[in-house]
Structures are given as C-alpha cells and as structure tokens.
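Can't paste images in this forum, so I'm doing it all in text. The chain is below; anyone willing to post the predicted structure tokens underneath?
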Amino acid sequence: MSVLPEERLERIRTLLGTFQHLSTKHIAADLGVSRETVRRDVLKLEELGYLKRVFGGVSSLEVKEEAPIETRTQVNQKEKQKIARAAVNLVTPGQTVFIDAGSTVTAFADELAKLAGLTIITNSFEVAIRLSGSNGYKTSDRHEVIVLGGCPNVSLKATFGASTVGQIYQYKADFAFLSPVGLSYRDGATSYERPEAEVARAMCSQSRKIVLLADHSKLGQTSRVQFCDVSRIDTLITDIKSEERPDFAVYKKSIRCMVV
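Text version of the structure:
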C-alpha cells in the first residue's frame, strides 16, 4: 500500500526529530520508496524550512521533542514483535533483569508476561502495566516487578532523574534489556535525551550482560547522548532488514547478533 505524500513528509520530520541527521538511503528504506521520491520530498521540506540538504542526506532545522511512545510503537511494529519474541529466549526463571523505557522493550514486556519466575526492574510505566496482568495474562504472581521511582515523564510514560538512577545502583542484574534510539559502530548506543541515557547507562553498569533490542531503522544512526560503547554490548537482537545495511558485517565482528 502506497504512502500518501503528506504522510511521507510527516514521517521524514518524525525521523529527523529523533536522529537530527539522515541519509537519503535511510529515508528511502524506511518509507519503502525510491531515492528520487525522497529527493522530491526533501526539496519540499527544505522549501518549508524544516530541514537543509547536506552531502548524502539531510539535517534538521527543528528543535523537536522525541515522538510520544504511542507514536513510536506503531513504527516497524512487526519487526519489534519478532525482536521481542527472540529476546525472551535469553532469560530463565530466577534471573533479574533491567528494562528501560521504549517501544521495543514494551513489546518485550508483552512476551515476558507469558513467562514466570523473573525479577524485573524498570522505570517504564508501560512495561510495568503489561506485567501486571492487564493484558490478559495473570502476571501479578508470576514475576516480581519493581518500578523505579523518580520524576515522571508523561510523553515517555516513565520515571527519570537522580532518584531513578540512584535506585538502579541498589541492584545487580543478569541482563539489561535496552531499546536505543540509535546504534552506530563509532558512537555506540545513543538516546535522544540526557535523562534517558543516564538511566540506560546506570542499568548497563549494574548488569552482567547488555542486550540491545533495535530494529533496522536504528542501525547506523546516532542520536544525541551516548550511553554504551559497542564493546560493552553482549547481544544485539534486530530484524532481517538489518542484513541489507552495508555496515552490518562490522557489528557481527564484535557483537553477538540475533537476526529475526
């Protein structure tokens, strides 16, 4: 099904709100259109003052907040569900896991709700709700769910701040399951906002293994704040479209990659 021109323009603006810089190839792959179509859309957005063309792509002129989690959940939804189903195979009863806030880890929580015997520590209201039995699974007596306190962010439906980070350092976990905004071999895993990165960074430091859940649109991208070097990542779970990226072979040399 073709995407309407107005929808394409809004999607490009949403992507730029997250990544700030995008290649023409990335936009074309995300929208499923030709590069020529992307060039026409980019020219239109440049005329409207939303972006500027740079070598190989575009750069945002807007200072824009990250899209609400409800919006991000609808993007690459099938890929995120496949990634979530693969991620649950890594955990076993009795383990403790950190989960941050994001659309992919929210899908992961839906899959965890079918299991039992885990201690789950999260700053995400969405993750906690999905593990509380409201999604049709009686989970309240299946897992121990610990919700981190702190300053609530309505858009991201999660807690952040010094209090949240301080509580993370009270625990040791077997895994940190994290959903980055961007992942590049040079810049590592990145978040859009500093408070998000601080939570993810603390979870990394307190976990034996770090697992990133990232669909193909995240790879090769750098957002604004780094929270983890590539060398610290134990496993990357991504979808099969990532294999089409020319730099994917580089990731596979240093990270265990699960492609679904």
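The longest strand covers residues 207-213. The longest helix spans residues 5-19.
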